[in-house]
Specification:
heterodimer; A: 198 residues; alpha+beta; Ubiquitin-like (UB roll); DNA polymerase, domain 1; six-stranded mixed sheet; 26% helix; 20% strand; globular; B: 759 residues; Aldehyde Oxidoreductase, domain 4; seven-stranded mixed sheet; five-stranded mixed sheet; 19 helices; 21% strand; disordered N terminus
């Protein structure tokens, strides 16, 4: 899975974030529905038929074994709320929640998500009234909005782990990029979501 | 309408089911150009039978909120019920056919409020008159006896007619001449100036808003491109056989160098900046296309810039800075007065190439079939994208439909439209199939449109009291339109002044970037003024106030009233920010304050906002920097929506922090060194200041831009604050190239600048 390691000392402003990607094998191989439907191709990728558990539903997909979850979500399953921003796990526009943990779906092979519970922005609510989404609306966070799916997913995961995240928790856990510069409101919305949660 | 189009519409309807807020793709225009019972009025609005109203937004929404603010402007005069408004983006073809009825369609220069405030108020008022006239004829009352509210006409006695009821009759009435239309008294505004929530707020939190990259069409193929990695390079060959058997690969397309669309009205004579040769791999998925492109052997001829680097360019600029350059502003006798000065201060400032890096990667979807060409692209300049698409396809404009979706960030990068040309070239090679072309982030960074690399050499003379009596500034920048306003349009009238400005050709085509030349020159100018204040032992505010002296404006100056107004506005915001930040109160060791003030006065008739900022920073003495507090005051004329404006100032603050900390694109052997965000960090939550205070000045002036004014002043204040905190004087960017330790006693920097290990 994706781990972010804080690698430098000094003040947090100049901390160096290194994203380490360790492809995770399916938990129980025997439960997985791997079926090679094509021959091994030149580039070493194998086409597979997999089943993913997305937002509580089981969704079948045929994918090359190295296809990132992001592109399966967006282009195969048409869940377009999860965004492509950098493709290397830096910007977090593609953040989804996998078994309660945030994952950069651009850097996680879809096959590695087999057997795991994947939640995307579409799975938070039918009408945009999940508590983090509501806080985002109350604080009026989005500008262009492109990063906000990933931000909301990262905030939801953080609030799932901690009832009242501190500013330091937010700084450490949410490394997503917003180019419009809505950071001040993101921070405020996370606190508002924590305080408004019933 | 042929089968292709119909099946497209069906699929769009299916995809868009449940979309809360209709975007262009799902709006009535594309899906059904003229629903039989909807009524278009005066090109600007479409009255729907359910009494909802489509408002045509003639700008791209790049996050600045025009969908909401411009709706407020038109709906104010039309007395629309706010909840009935369903904005949609304008159609460039309609605008072309109707002789630019939408007035101003390029989304740049922070001009949407300035350019559209009057036309959209007037359009709303004219349409209201048309509806009133229709209702009067129908009811038999005089127009004077009718009034309007909440999308309805109120008859004497309290009877109501909805706009929808009279819309059809109104559509046959000629719009009244503007001279016969009375606009509202601003005191009666109930929408303009109110902190209304953005109309697209909810879908921006649910993932349901459709950006260009989300366009999805039946049978769509995906393309990934690589342009010449060296600017100006030519494609020699590629070996498509090497990837022919890779799964899903459809083909390889050679994309010819060519025009990338007009770079915006400010560019010199509409110069068309170049797009280089490129190769596109088309496949049945993005991932497969990307993999195949990486595996495709391509041979390039790197061309004239094969050995050009940022270092060699900067060396050239420095050498030119040693020679006289063309004078763009002059007063008094600089050469004589500098000889009489009590003290002479000199400094060289420099500014690197940068990249706007909007978060939505560049993309464009194009579909050429027997019906014509359909294009979708997140762009800041849809009108030009439409023109360029038609030219590239070799089709008359009427056969090209351009669909403008929401834009995931612009910041100037999307004023260029070369990607539209690329996608259309691919669609031409594979007709009948919709092609969605997506750039990788790596391609975006390799092919940016930077603001110009610049050197700014200063020399100033102080008299015995520490007054600035002589000011010299020689600026040499890379490829750019004439940006001499940066050094020359100082609001000051120093008695002896000489400003020189020249440009040299550099590899990359120029691009506008949020804050444009003001970010460079306000920082350089006021960084140097801060040095003068330190040298004179004066408070910088005291020095600025002295320089911002109405009495110093020459009485025979052309545009003297503008010069005086600039000074008054600047003094006012400067004074206010000092109060807010408690300027002058002591700070503990290691902390410092900086201050700055500026407007965006490109030329005399340019309506501009004025902003001032104080930034407080802490240096930990070990190279660490924290931005503790940012105060910003903005006078942007009339405020259309204070929450939207506030958001723009907040965004500008973080843009300034990113620019100061990390802003730099490096050329080596003609190539951009930075590949992705791992090589070019940006401000994130951990680096973003946690304490920002924004104040907006109430004003009845014409609305001015709000998206950029705070960028240069916040950056300048931040960099000046580093010196105040005991750190080095910052004369080049980014900060991650500097060691931010404390200065020695003699004032010299502790160490020569070298990377401190910052990302």
């Amino acid at each position: 899975m994706v781990q972010a390691l804080l690698a430098s000392g000094g003040l947090h402003q100049f901390s160096v974030w290194i994203i380490i990607l360790t492809p995770r094998l399916p938990r129980a191989q025997k439960d997985c529905q791997f079926t090679a439907v094509g021959s091994v191709c030149q580039m070493g990728s194998i086409m597979m038929r997999i089943e993913l558990k997305i937002n509580g539903s089981t969704m079948p997909a045929e994918v090359d074994d190295d296809t990132p979850l992001l592109w399966v979500l967006r282009d195969t399953l048409k869940l377009k709320g999860t965004k492509y921003g950098c493709g290397i796990g830096q910007c977090g526009a593609c953040t989804v929640i996998v078994d309660g943990q945030t994952a950069r779906s651009c850097s996680l092979a879809a096959t590695a998500a087999v057997g795991l519970e994947v939640t995307t922005i579409e799975g938070l609510s039918a009408n945009g009234d999940q508590f983090v989404q509501k806080a985002w609306q109350d604080i009026r966070v989005p500008q262009c909005g492109y990063c906000q799916s990933g931000m909301i997913m990262a905030a939801t995961a953080l609030l799932g782990k901690k009832l009242f995240p501190t500013d330091e928790d937010i700084d450490r856990e949410i490394t997503n990029i917003c180019r419009c510069g809505t950071y001040d409101r993101i921070r405020a919305a996370i606190h508002a979501a924590a305080n408004g949660r019933t | 309408m042929n089968t292709d189009r119909r099946s497209l519409l069906k699929s769009i309807a299916a995809v868009s089911a449940g979309v809360v807020f209709p975007v262009t793709m799902t709006g009535c225009r594309v899906a059904d150009p003229k629903p039989s019972d909807s009524v278009e009025l005066f090109s600007w609005v479409v009255m729907m039978p359910d009494n909802t109203v489509r408002i045509r937004i003639p700008q791209s929404d790049i996050g600045q909120g025009v969908v909401t603010t411009l709706s407020q402007v038109l709906a104010e005069e039309l007395d629309l019920k706010w909840s009935s408004i369903r904005p949609e983006f304008f159609d460039p073809l309609t605008n072309l056919k109707r002789n630019n009825v939408y007035v101003y369609t390029c989304t740049e220069s922070s001009w949407s409020a300035d350019r559209l405030f009057n036309p959209m108020r007037m359009a709303g008022a004219q349409i209201r008159q048309m509806l009133l006239t229709a209702a009067a004829r129908r009811s038999g009352f005089d127009v004077a006896d009718l009034r309007t509210e909440e999308s309805s006409i109120i008859l004497p006695g309290g009877g109501r007619q909805s706009y929808a009821e009279v819309a059809s009759a109104a559509s046959h009435i000629a719009p009244p001449h503007p001279s016969r239309v009375k606009l509202k008294d601003p005191a009666d505004y109930r929408l303009i100036g109110k902190p209304i929530k953005r109309l697209d707020l909810v879908p921006k939190t649910t993932g349901k808003l459709e950006y260009g990259i989300d366009v999805d069409l039946p049978g769509m193929l995906y393309a990934v491109v690589q342009q010449s990695p060296v600017y100006g390079g030519k494609l020699v060959s590629f070996d498509e056989q090497a990837i022919a058997k890779m799964p899903g690969v459809v083909g390889v397309v050679r994309i010819a160098a060519g025009p990338c669309g007009l770079n915006g009205p400010l560019a010199d004579g509409g110069e068309d900046y170049g797009m280089d040769d490129a190769v596109a791999v088309v496949a049945d998925s993005f991932w497969r296309a990307r993999k195949a492109l990486l595996a495709l052997p391509i041979e390039w001829d790197d061309g004239e810039f094969a050995y050009t680097s940022s270092e060699s360019i900067m060396a050239d600029l420095v050498s030119r800075a040693g020679r006289p350059q063309p004078v763009v502003r002059e007063a008094g006798d600089f050469a004589g007065s500098i000889g009489r000065a009590h003290r002479v201060i000199e400094a060289d400032y420099s500014y690197p190439f940068m990249d706007a890096m909007p978060l939505e990667p560049i993309n464009c979807t194009a579909w050429l079939n027997s019906d014509g060409l359909q294009v979708w692209a997140s762009t800041q300049f849809a009108q030009e994208a439409h023109r360029l698409a038609a030219v590239t396809a070799g089709l008359p404009p009427e056969r090209v439909q351009f669909n403008l979706p929401y834009v995931g960030g612009g910041f100037g990068r999307r004023c260029q439209n070369e990607y539209v040309s690329q996608a259309v070239q691919i669609a031409k090679a594979i007709p009948g199939k919709p092609i969605k072309m997506i750039w990788t982030r790596e391609e975006m960074m390799a092919r940016g449109y930077p603001p110009p690399i610049t050197i700014s050499r200063f020399k100033a003379g102080l008299d015995e009291k520490g007054n600035v009596i002589a000011w010299f500034n020689r600026v040499i920048s890379g490829t750019a339109p004439d940006q001499s306003y940066g050094p020359a349009r100082l609001p000051h009238y120093v008695p002896n002044l000489r400003i020189e400005y020249a440009r040299v050709k550099t590899p990359q085509p120029f691009g506008w970037m949020r804050g444009v030349a003001f970010t460079q020159h306000v920082w350089m100018n006021q960084g140097f003024q801060d040095e003068l204040a330190v040298a004179a032992g004066r408070d910088p505010v005291d020095l600025y106030m002295d320089l911002l002296d109405e009495g110093s404006v020459p009485s025979d100056l052309k545009g003297r009233d503008v010069a005086v107004r600039r000074i008054r506005h600047m003094r006012a915001v400067l004074k206010r920010v000092c109060q807010m930040a408690k300027w002058g109160t002591p700070l503990p060791k290691g902390r410092g304050r900086g201050i700055s003030v500026s407007d965006f006065s490109y030329w005399d008739s340019y309506r501009t906002g004025t902003a001032s900022s104080v930034v407080e920073v802490t240096l930990d003495g070990k190279g660490g920097l924290r931005v503790d507090r940012v105060f910003a005051v903005l006078n942007c004329g009339r405020i259309l929506n204070p929450e939207v404006v506030r958001g723009q100032v907040e965004g500008s603050i973080f843009w300034a922090i990113t620019t100061a900390l990390y802003g730099k694109i490096t050329l080596k052997d003609g190539r951009v060194v930075q590949r992705n965000f791992q090589d070019h960090n940006v401000a994130r939550l951990a680096t973003a200041c946690r304490n920002i205070v924004v104040e907006l000045v109430e004003s009845d002036d014409h609305p001015a831009g709000v998206g950029e004014d705070a960028v240069p002043i916040v950056m300048t204040a931040m960099l000046n604050a580093i010196y105040d905190a005991g750190g080095p004087r910052i004369r080049s960017l980014p900060l991650s190239d500097h060691v931010l330790s404390f200065r020695k006693q003699d004032g010299s920097d502790a160490l020569p600048g070298k990377p401190s290990g910052n990302p």
